[in-house]
C-alpha cells in the first residue's frame, strides 16, 4: 500500500517533493485469508453431517418409507452419529474461541497434576475398556503442584488420552507419567498407535489439520482437539513437544512451570 502526498510544507516552486508512506499489508492479508479459510472449513465440517441428516430425514419422510421400520432402523443411528458430530464440533469451536480470548490470563489456582490426571483416567475408563486398551499410570506417589485452571487442564488430558485411543489399535498400552524437574513438572503420554509422519508433525496443532481425515471423522474427531490443547498449554506458560514414529507410536510431553 503506497500513499503519495504532495509535500505542502515545501513552498519552493521549482522543487517538487512528495512524502511516500509505505505500509506492509502482508500480515493483514494473511489474517483475512486465515479468517476466510476458517469460515470455509467450519461451513464444510458442518455441512457434511447436516447433508447426511437431511438425506436420512428425506428418506424416512418419503411416502414409501414412512412405514418402513427397517429403513428407519438403518437411518436413525447414522443420523444420531452425525448429530453428535455436529455437537462435538460446536462444543470444540466454543472452547477454542473462549481459550483464545483468555490465553493471556495466567491461571493462579494451586493444583496437583496427579489428582487431575487420575480423575481424567477414571473419566475415560469406559472408552479405554471398549477399545481393549490398557492405561499404565506410572505416576509415583507424590504431589505435583502447578498454577492452573482445573477445567482447562482436564480438557488437555482428555484430548490427549482420547487421541491416544483413537489412533491406536486394540490390545496396546498407553503410558502416562509425571516427572519432577528442577523448576518444572514434565507430563508424558506415550501410545503404541499409528504414529505421525515426520512431515506433518509441525502441522498437527493447526485447526482442522488431520493426517488421516477418514480415521479422525470415523472416531468422532473434530480436528480441533490439539489446537485447543496448544492454546491451553500456552495459557499455562508450558511447552509441548511431540515425538512420533510411524507405525510405532507417539509421545506428547508437556512441561509445566512449578509453583
Ligand atoms: P482429531 O479430532 O482429528 O483427532 P486433533 O486436533 O486432536 O484432531 O489431532 C489432529 C491430528 O493429529 C489427528 O487427526 C491425527 O491425524 C493426529 N494425531 C493426534 N494425536 C495422535 C496420536 N496420538 N497418534 C497419531 N496421530 C495423532
UniProtKB/TrEMBL annotation:
EC numbers for this chain: 2.7.13.3
GO BP annotation list: cellular response to phosphate starvation
Superkingdom as given in the UniProt entry: Bacteria
Domain Histidine kinase as annotated: residue spans: 41-259
GO MF assignments: phosphoprotein phosphatase activity; phosphorelay sensor kinase activity
Assigned GO CC terms: plasma membrane
Keywords: Kinase, Membrane, Phosphoprotein, Transferase, Two-component regulatory system
EC class (word): transferase
Catalytically driven reaction(s): ATP + protein L-histidine = ADP + protein N-phospho-L-histidine
Protein name: histidine kinase
The encoding gene: phoR
Whole sequence portion shown: 89 to 347 of 347
Amino acid at each position: 500500500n503506497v500513499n503519495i502526498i504532495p509535500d505542502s510544507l515545501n513552498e519552493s516552486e521549482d522543487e517538487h517533493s512528495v512524502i511516500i508512506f509505505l505500509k506492509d499489508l502482508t500480515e493483514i492479508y494473511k489474517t483475512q485469508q486465515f479468517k476466510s479459510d476458517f469460515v470455509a472449513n467450519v461451513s464444510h465440517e458442518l455441512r457434511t453431517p447436516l447433508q447426511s441428516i437431511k438425506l436420512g430425514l428425506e428418506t424416512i419422510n418419503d411416502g414409501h418409507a414412512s412405514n418402513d421400520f427397517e429403513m428407519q432402523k438403518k437411518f436413525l443411528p447414522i443420523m444420531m452419529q452425525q448429530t453428535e458430530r455436529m455437537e462435538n464440533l460446536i462444543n470444540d469451536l466454543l472452547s477454542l474461541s473462549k481459550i483464545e480470548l483468555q490465553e493471556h490470563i495466567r491461571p493462579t489456582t494451586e493444583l496437583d497434576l496427579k489428582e487431575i490426571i487420575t480423575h481424567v483416567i477414571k473419566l475415560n475408563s469406559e472408552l479405554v475398556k471398549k477399545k481393549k486398551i490398557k492405561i499404565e499410570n506410572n505416576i509415583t506417589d507424590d504431589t505435583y503442584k502447578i498454577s492452573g485452571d482445573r477445567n482447562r487442564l482436564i480438557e488437555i488430558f482428555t484430548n490427549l488420552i482420547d487421541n491416544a485411543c483413537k489412533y491406536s489399535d486394540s490390545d496396546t498400552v498407553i503410558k502416562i507419567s509425571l516427572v519432577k524437574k528442577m523448576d518444572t513438572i514434565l507430563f508424558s503420554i506415550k501410545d503404541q498407535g499409528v504414529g505421525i509422519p515426520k512431515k506433518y508433525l509441525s502441522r498437527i496443532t493447526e485447526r482442522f489439520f488431520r493426517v488421516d481425515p477418514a480415521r479422525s471423522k470415523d472416531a468422532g474427531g473434530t480436528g480441533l482437539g490439539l489446537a485447543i490443547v496448544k492454546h491451553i498449554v500456552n495459557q499455562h506458560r508450558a511447552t509441548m513437544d511431540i515425538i512420533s514414529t510411524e507405525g510405532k507410536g507417539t509421545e506428547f510431553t508437556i512441561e509445566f512451570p512449578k509453583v
